[in-house]
């Protein structure tokens, strides 16, 4: 089993020399989009974008093909309750980046900020107010907005809590977790199979919102199923894959990206195969990787 921590210094230096230039900032269209149901609703809230090459997102990808990266959050409403799945880049991300991102890694992570989740909530009174935050995993580009919500509890499984508190920059930014120190809520999965995942948590007891333990990308990486009935089902797998084509082709990330980003590459491959099989069994299931702007755009077009 291969375990890799996110962006080790020596591998990043090698990658920078090999790849030259990484993400380039890019302007973006509005991608905030609701998907409405009687019991559950979700909104996609982009907070930043960047440009890279397909080659860096999938094994066998083309250098000539541009690939748009999205950084954002999913706001989920169930009845009178609401929560955030990730926070994207928050109000203080520039300060966090300056404080915690090592100089040798900064060229890899250029981004163009859009509105933070907090600003989007302030600007739109029709959006539900979240009562808690679930993290797909603890990497900096998913937890950047935690400090914008100091009063909200942050829900993570034990594996990810331990990872966050033992890993450091550039994967995890300590400055992002200051406000979360007294707000952690460690939750536990039940040994109930959901869509082929052996550990799951049915948040509301009605099957509409289900968390599953995926692992791989980080020890406690989590996927979010939203099941709206009538064939309208969605899966947010976090960073298990960066590019939806990885599922279709059963491909991992570009080899250097795997080396840098995935904690357990064998587990990642296993889950990719699982998602591929699941997509065949449930062709209507829409799988939306956290950084694949095309997948976000598809949801918006359809809703």
Radius of gyration: 18 Å
Separation of the first and last Cα atoms: 41 Å
The oligomeric status of these chains comes to: single chain
Mean pLDDT metric = 83
Strand element count: 13
Instruction: Could you tell me the CATH topology label.
Output: Metallo-beta-lactamase, Chain A
In the CATH hierarchy, what is the class?
A: Alpha Beta
The number of distinct helices, counting runs of at least 4 residues, comes to 9
At the fourth level of CATH, the homologous superfamily is: Ribonuclease Z/Hydroxyacylglutathione hydrolase-like
Brief rundown of the structure:
The protein is α/β, with parallel strands linked by helices.
What does this protein structure show overall?
The protein has 303 residues and is of the alpha/beta class. It has one domain: 4-Layer Sandwich (Metallo-beta-lactamase, Chain A). Helix content is 26%, strand content 22%. The strands form two sheets. Strands 1, 2, 3, 4, 5, 6, 7 and 8 form an eight-stranded mixed beta sheet that branches. The protein has a five-stranded mixed beta sheet with strand order 9-10-11-12-13, with no helix packed on it. A hairpin with a 5-residue loop joins β11 and β12. It is globular. It holds the Pfam family Lactamase_B. Residues 70-291 form the Metallo-beta-lactamase domain. This is MBL fold metallo-hydrolase. GO terms for molecular function: hydrolase activity; metal ion binding. Residues 1-27 form the signal peptide.
